[in-house]
Amino acid sequence: MLVVVNPLVFDLWLNAAMSVPQLWAGVPPVRQPFLCGLKEMRQTRTHPRPRVVTPEMREKYRAAAKARWADPVTGAKWRAAVSEATRLFSPASRARLSEATKARWADPAARERLMAGIRASNADPVVRRRKATAVQQRWADPAMREKLMAAITGAKPKRRRRRDTVDR
């Protein structure tokens, strides 16, 4: 695979908030295109942007986000997406999901399909290792260990006894 890249345009495009036609207008033509083959691709970084976020970059991202939200059309789309995402977690929505899940598990054919998927997932060694690591991390945390032990032993948290006025 051979990729032809104009390095001047690519660097300008990465570092500027311009469209491609705006970039081409200010760039002198390059006589020899920069050819990048498989060998050169292996030697270059896979991610062209810097990994460290500088305060200038953070300010640039912040300004872009503020402009997006301030734009009437784009802002309306973002607000609609956010309200849709929060609507999914409403009590009524959770109740509908719960009923649908219960109905799915009540159907024998669907139940067998779900159980087959769970068995296949649990048979995968990568999934088993990931679950084991998660459990070990939970038990390594002292606060979580205390909660888990309380749940296992059935211990209830200590509560102050309410004194009635008659007891005094």
Task: Describe the protein's architecture and organization.
Among the domains are: 3-49, no CATH class; 88-148, no CATH class. The chain starts with a strand and ends in a 15-residue tail after the last helix. It has 168 residues and is mainly alpha-helical. It has helices at 7-15, 20-25, 38-43, 55-70, 72-87, 91-106, 108-123, 125-140, 142-153, and strands at residues 3-5, 34-36. The chain is built from 9 helices and 2 strands, in the order βααβααααααα. The model has no long low-confidence stretch (mean pLDDT 76).
Summarize the biggest pleated sheet. Answer: 2 strands, antiparallel
Low-pLDDT stretches: none
What is the average of the pLDDT values?
A: 76
What structural class do the secondary elements suggest? mainly alpha
The order of strands across the largest sheet is 1-2
List the total number of helices.
Answer: 9
Q: Tell me the number of strands.
A: 2
Terminal-residue CA separation: 88 Å
Helix/strand order: EHHEHHHHHHH
Q: What fraction of residues sit in β-strands?
A: under 5%
Helix fraction, binned, reads 55-70%
The radius of gyration computed from the alpha-carbon positions, rounded to a whole number of angstroms, is 29 Å
Kindly summarize this structure in a few lines.
The chain is mainly alpha-helical and 168 residues long. It has helices at residues 7-15, 20-25, 38-43, 55-70, 72-87, 91-106, 108-123, 125-140, 142-153, and strands at 3-5, 34-36. It has nine helices and two strands, in the order E-H-H-E-H-H-H-H-H-H-H.
